[in-house]
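Let's study a protein:

===
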Amino acid sequence: MTGAEAFDRISALGPRPLPPEAPLAMPTQSFAERPSTGSRIVSQRGMLGRRLLVVLATLIIGLLAATEMVRPIGPDGATAVDAVLFVLIFSLFCWIAFGFVNALFGFVVLMSRRQGVISPFAGHALELPHSRTAILLPVYNEDFEQVGGRISKMATMLDRAGAADRFDLFVLSDSNATAGEREEALWRGLARDSAVPIYYRRREKNIARKPGNIAEWIRRFGGAYEHMLVLDADSLMTGEAMIRLATAMERNPSVGLIQTIPAVINSRTLFARWQQFAAAAYSPIASAGLMWWSGSEATFWGHNAIIRTRAFAESCDLPALSGREPLGGAIQSHDMVEAAMLRRRGWAVHMAMLPEGSYEEFPPTLSDFSVRDRRWAQGNLQHLRLLDAKGFHWINRLHLFMGASAYLTSPMWLLLLILTVAQGAGLLSSSTFTPSGWPLVLTAVLLFVPKFMAFAWLMMDPRRQASLGGVGAIVRSMLVEIPLSVVMAPITMLAQTMAVIDILRGNASGWRPQRREADGISIWRALIDYFPQVVLGAVFTTMMIMADSAVLLWLLPVAVSLVLAPVVVAITSRQDMGDWFARHGVFAAREERPRIVARQEARPIRMESIPLRFRRRLPPPANDRATA
């Protein structure tokens, strides 16, 4: 039977049926009551000492820096402005100090080459799991040709590893009807030839968004699977990585979730290539530090993670928060809360640093990243309402607080800049803020030394050097990455500040499809989108000229970055700029096409693979996919 005949036969019979339903109860939880059941998890030896060391080091650095920078109190004592400055400086220094301390311990762990210190899953031989695992792929108005290519590749890798009968793959669609028709047609071609069962289900109403999508699957089919491996539409995992995760869950029955650390791949624009290099070069030491002190109270990023299905069902149906969106209603950033709920019920949550095999893609432009970041900002600010939830481990509360702080530090930094400019221009009577001397040196150390620690570790790892193009390419990339990160920081600071203000005004983010590919934002479009940055930069520049104060010179990079924001955004959004830098050995990470997931191997499923007589009945692809 030819492929077309097989497809015609499937078309005549209708879609491949879903598996028999295996219902699994998933009761809604309460943040106001501690669950009645749950076993005590014994943390690794010395974990409390690690955590206290991280917290105390962070607080001490923040306190010393803030005290020094507001030290010259006038004869009349501290003013209200002095108090505000102290709080701002202390908070901001604690934030960057935490990043430094976390990276420092991660660097020490990686240099010691003792992976077992941070992960209980290292060193096991590859074995096939005995239980069944469901691979869940939620989609929402995506380019399903690209998604289908990744599905096909993952199914092929599992089949080649001899694990086709241990995994089922579910495409869980929340797309609108038009996109759904194309998805179903393309899915038919996938299911026709795959040794791994591939199922497709589209909800008519996307109630509760992604968490509701997963919960609906659990209540219908969850009872048949010991584990569920949750992916995003842009996720890709190798067969070996998926098998290792499933067997790790079998060997560790007290573990409820294992979160991998996905590498970024397939970047084309300059912005995405920059982020891909930064993630590959710097994130290992940050992730190792996070794993070192998180232990069995690690966090969840929502994808590229394996979860014990029954543990999730009994723990993680999140109730809506009281009040209206954006700070009430359904929890947007549900993943970190789900990790806390699993730990509350007595299940361990770990992170795993796999050698390779877990991948994701990054938004192609700063504007696309900001769309996602706006949604995350809303969800992370909601976490502030859960800090007093009953039964949460204090480390989970710390994760939630840090997630919110990632966005609150932006308006705090902006307020500090405004007060500094006003003070330098003589608009404020306080004269306590002196951004000079060793505090500025300390700021540079806290921000940039982790990058050089990452470089030192790369020099000890030939395999990772090769993945980033070699030592010369790494040096060239860092020489571009560091100033680029300095330029981008004020731009994203104002974008996040505006997002926080928008949330506090009561505006919800909504749920828009994520654009995965783009090539260029016009300078005029960028000027419209980033006009607030230009205005603020112009104001800062004018105030510095009027003040004629040497103290304000340290603000010059901030002002210049803001004024040039549209130019920076437009240039970094282009694929030809990304390609030009890559040809010159900058951000030319070979991991953009790792051997097992090379772009030419993970070919998208094209409409041409579907017989013409069925293809004619399909709606054309929408240039601007509507939301459901």
Q: What stands out?
A: The radius of gyration is 25 Å. The CA atoms of residues 411 and 497 lie 5 Å apart.
